[in-house]
Amino acid sequence: MGEDFTSIELGSINNNNQEKIDDTPHTKENKIGFNGEENPFDRASLFSLATFAWVEKFAFHCFRNVLEQSHLYNLAQCDKSSTVSKKIQKEWQKELKKDKKKQYWKASIRAYGLYYCLGMLFYSVYCASLFVGPQLMSKLINHILLLRNNTNDDTLDENFGYYYALAIFGASMIGSFCNYQSNLISSRVGNWMRSGMVVDIYAKSLKLDTAARRQTSPGEIVNLMSNDAQRVSEMFIMLNNGIFAPFLMIACIVLIYREIGWPTFVGLGIMLIVAPTNAIVARKLLKIRLSIIKSSDRRLRLISEILQYIKIIKLYAWEDSFAQKVTDARNSEIKSLSKFSNVKAGLIFIVTSVPNIISMVVFAIVFQAQTGVSADRVFSAMAYLNILRWPLNILPLIFAMLAQVKVSKNRVAKFLLLSERKPVETIIDPSVENGVYANEASFNWEVSKDDSFKLENISIQCKGSSLTMVVGCVGSGKSSICQAILGDMELIKGSLKIKGKIAYVPQQAFIINSTLKENILFGKEYDQVRYDYVIESCALKRDLEMFPEGDQVEIGERGINLSGGQKQRISIARAVYSDADIYILDDPLSAVDAHVGKHLFQKVITGALKNKTVILVANQLNYIPFANEVLVLDENKILERGTYKELMESQGEFSKTLKLFGIHDCDSSDSSSNSTVMEDSDDGIPEEEEEDDDNQIREDKEEEEQKETIVDDLGVTVVLSQKKKMKERFKSLRKRATKYKSKRKQTGPPPMASKELVKVEERETGAVNLGVYYSYFKNGGIGLFGFIIFIFILETTTTVLISWWLSVWSNTMQFGNGSISLISDQYLYVYIGIGVAAVIVCCLRNFFFFSFSVTCAKRIHENLFAAILKCPMSFFDTTPMGRILNRFSRDQDVLDQMIASSTSQYILYSTQIVATIVIISVITPFLLVPIAPIIVLYYFIQTYYRCSSRELQRLVSISRSPIFSHFSESLQGVTSIHAYGREQDNIMTNYHLLDENNKPTMMLQTINQWLGLRLDFLGNLIIFFTVIFVTINRDSLTIASIGLSISYSLSITSSLNRATLQGTDLETKMNSVERMNHYINGPTEAPQIIKHSRPSKKWPEQGGITMDNVVMSYRQGLEPVLKGISCSIAPNEKIGIVGRTGSGKSSLVLALFRLIELSKGSIKFDGLDISQVGLKDLRKNLAVLPQEACLFAGTLRMNLDPFNECDDEGLWRIVKDIQLYDKVKELEGGLDCAVSENGDNWSVGQRQLICLGRILLRHPKILAIDEGTASVDATYDAWIQQTIKDKFKDCTIITIAHRLNTIIDYDRIIVMDAGKIIEFDTPHRLLSNPHGLFTWLVDETGPSNSQQLKKLANTIHQNKQLN
């Protein structure tokens, strides 16, 4: 290779001699928890599986330690996403082959149904065990009656009561074992369904064609992956209850008939009358749920878009406009949610009041008709009625859930059936050269739309070692031709074939949230030789030296902590490292400075890639002479084609453009052969050493200008280079770099606050703070909540009174020795009165509480969204978008739909437990002796359990966020993922993230069953001791008291279990409130409006800017990016800002908008310190034209004028000013024409023009332009510059420039380096200093262009002198 390392060609690297680097740390850490261990479920014994004893070691670990993700067991093999998804994908493929309607749920049943049937078998045994207790209770009461009536009968065994106690206990335990096995199976199948759906949705999102992508949005798909998939998962947990509810009801009715006879049919009649209500309400709930989903999708789409473009929204002070859009969507959602809650509350009221109504009617008939039913039969009937309450109570929840699940499964199926992109035909003939072959091909973005953009009659052959340049005006189809080759546009006619691997560099760089090194490798193996060469070629060496962590520096979402040029160079480096055969480069040079662009063209495009097939879209016409072929696009077609020479000889329109911009003829073959030895400023030499080298460089300048190959910014002049001299110079610079690196190793990197940009998601530990509960209930009103609690207590009291009064009544009717002396009718009237009161209280409880919960959810969402909008930009720099979306999707869904039921049931079961213990303790006081230690044991078990459950739930929530972040990232870079063939890698990443989420999910489900079984054991002990003490005290207790005590003891097991599980479930759901409170109480930027310090509406009236010792850091603890900036800018002055990458140019603009607050110093507009005014008052009076144009989904009108402040005439005038009048007139809707997600239906150049329209409409007194014309061609660039000069001549303009020709006629130039202003003067005076940095930057554009720039600066100076 010799000394000239840059002469290495990527394709010629010998892979057999690669030096492999192992980045895996070898330091052994003390292992905590069970990370990496096989899941005990896979090897547990039958006894351990039956009792869930295999989780006890884990539960003890959680009790002793704060649980972390790394402490968890590996997933059981059957629960892994890869295993689960294969089953459902296999069945779904079978479903797709059917001619009839494709049903995703049918595929699910075939995939997982057999295992679920095992759970149903267990549940059937549990249901059967429920009836054993009442049967034995009836026999026990009958046995006691026999003993009382036949005291001298020696044939009666007095110990039968104890046998009954053992039998009831045994039957209950068998039921408990079967119930929790069934629950775990249901939970597992539900989680399989969720995992399969998430994997399928993610994989499908990577396959969608353009038309399908425009039918949906990232927010809607996030909704599918979070809420819809979760709905289906939860449905499986409850499904057994719904399946067996009818059978339980039939069994109860049959058994009640056996006890009390024909009055049962009266109760059955009431149930039949009420039954149609369920179907009617279910249809109503389904309709409302569809409305909720629609509003929720719209809300999430808006929030996703706001988070993606939060920087632009803040710069334009558009928070109010977008907040109103989200508020409108949320209000629509709340309206539907209120209807849903009211209908659901009505259904619950009807169904829960039915047992009370049946009880009143049936027992009134029993006693009034004098059917002669004995007390033992009455209490058996009461026990069966208590069993009947459960299926009747659960049915409304089942119907509501089924309504939601039906919507969810249909939405998922509809998404999975969307159209997919068709793969581009590949050539396998080895005799054909690698390349792209299109013959009379026509492409369309959306065939179904008449106004969709098309490419027509495209015929190209880009093959072998060639450089094809694609040029044309804005909207001519340059980027579309790249997308067509990649398969994103639909081929309508003709043919398109490709041979070879493709690498793609998009116009807007795709950056993943990982290290810089991983962004370049992009899944490829690390090859040090290739990697170092790529870093050198792509001018990234100096950037790596600037980062303390080097190439291990973490890059935030969408490259938030990188400049536009850095992002693009990393994107180019990824492509070069991939060592592909075909390179599609979509205008990659527009985002970088001119001298960096020259470096990239020489070292990469005509250097590293000179033996590749390269298709380069470019607005830099100066590189055209180096192309083997040039395609000139206009109006969707290839208007002209040929080499530079052929185009010039054709005397076509494009040749006039070339002449206009001074593109000269050249010997491109000579220049290409020598261009790889060129060096430039970004050769990786540190700034300090570079400055020492400046004098030597400048001494050689005249000689180099005569001997180097130079690529101008506007013109091209080519001469032979002196290769030997350049090699020596390169060797010298390499030695200096090595010396600098050695020095850095000795001194170490500069101090940093933290190596991690994206922080680990915040998380509380221990019990959920009572303050979290208070914050939730406070949103609905503490007074109202207190009243609702009172209603709950009143409801339980009336329910207990019904049973107690019935026992007194039955005892009086049978034995005539009641404690209350009333006639039968009076007993009936009191009984009916209590029953009616219970029904009314139940109605009040349902409607009040569900309305209360909707209010809480509404206000928390309002507070959360308001807080997010007020967060400073540093928050968005360090917080992944998926993490925030998780709050607005899954966590908000918990508040909207789930927390109300958990809270309601927890309070209800808790009051029932208290009432039950009071009743059985009053009847059998000695029962308090065994109950006391049982309650203590119960407390310790549930405390022990909560240590596991709450931390597992927190891990479930935290591990869910990366799934959404990865998904959002994948959608943004889906074209790059396709181009590099990384679909399967990303699906594997999705598998991994899903498995990480499923680890705590499955462990939580298992530990729930572990707890339930142990609580059932304690509850069954209470039943056992109740029967024992009843048997002991049979002579002193009335039959009514015995029946009441046993019937209530039979219900305490389920009440204890459900209260504990619901309490824990409530705590885990309060975790969502806790997580949302983190952001509600998070960091905030300065106030939007300071009432006592509001400037005039016309401020700043003049536009003068004064900066005094401005110091700014992006975050606390980081090095300042602006270091003592002081300068004054006169009103209406035009200021250009130039400097190397990382010099602080963009940071200075951000400081003007207070997007980042100053650490020190001040900035004043017209003498008023901007820190003394509100952000809204400041930003709405400024404007910025950003480098990365962004459009919001909606209409063109909304994107130009989000506050609807301008009439149609004014908007059309703006559209004419930005040269889009003809285009907009052709589109359906005119000003209201559609703008799709991210503005994908507009070219990048057109998006930039629309952004220009915004500032024309705004007409601010101070305008900042951050290389706002980078994405447009030279003609449009010149036109935009002239438009800005004409329209904003009475404004102060600050322009960050890559193209120096755009600012050479400005009043003054700020030259920045390392966060400081090192030069600030007129262009003429700056160029008068031959050793100045601005002079060097101008010289770097090449001799021809630098002479033009200097001549232009001198002419402007002379004209000003004359004036």
Automatic annotation (TrEMBL):
Q: Which GO terms describe its biological process?
A: sorocarp development
Q: Where is the composition biased (Acidic residues)?
A: 679-694
Which residue ranges does the record assign to the ABC transmembrane type-1 domain? Answer: 118-404, 787-1068
Q: Where does the record place the ABC transporter domain?
A: 436-660, 1105-1339
InterPro entries the record matches: AAA+_ATPase (IPR003593), ABC1_TM_dom (IPR011527), ABC1_TM_sf (IPR036640), ABC_transporter-like_ATP-bd (IPR003439), ABC_transporter-like_CS (IPR017871), ABC_transporter_C-like (IPR050173), ABCC_6TM_D1 (IPR044746), ABCC_6TM_D2 (IPR044726)
How is this protein annotated for GO cellular component? membrane
UniProt key word Plastid: no
Q: Where in the cell is it found?
A: Membrane
User: Which ranges does the record mark as transmembrane?
Assistant: 111-132, 161-180, 235-256, 262-281, 345-367, 782-806, 826-848, 913-941, 1011-1032
Stretches of Low complexity bias are at 669-678
Q: Which GO terms describe its molecular function?
A: ABC-type transporter activity; ATP binding; ATP hydrolysis activity
Tell me the segments the record calls region Disordered: 667-708
Fetch the Pfam families from UniProt. ABC_membrane, ABC_tran
Kindly state which keywords UniProt assigns to this record, in alphabetical order: ATP-binding, Membrane, Nucleotide-binding, Repeat, Transmembrane, Transmembrane helix, Transport
Q: How does it sit in the membrane?
A: Multi-pass membrane protein
Which family, according to UniProt?
Belongs to the ABC transporter superfamily. ABCC family. Conjugate transporter (TC 3.A.1.208) subfamily.
What's the protein here called? Answer: ABC transporter C family protein
User: What species does this protein belong to?
Assistant: Cavenderia fasciculata
**Which taxonomic lineage is given here?**
Eukaryota, Amoebozoa, Evosea, Eumycetozoa, Dictyostelia
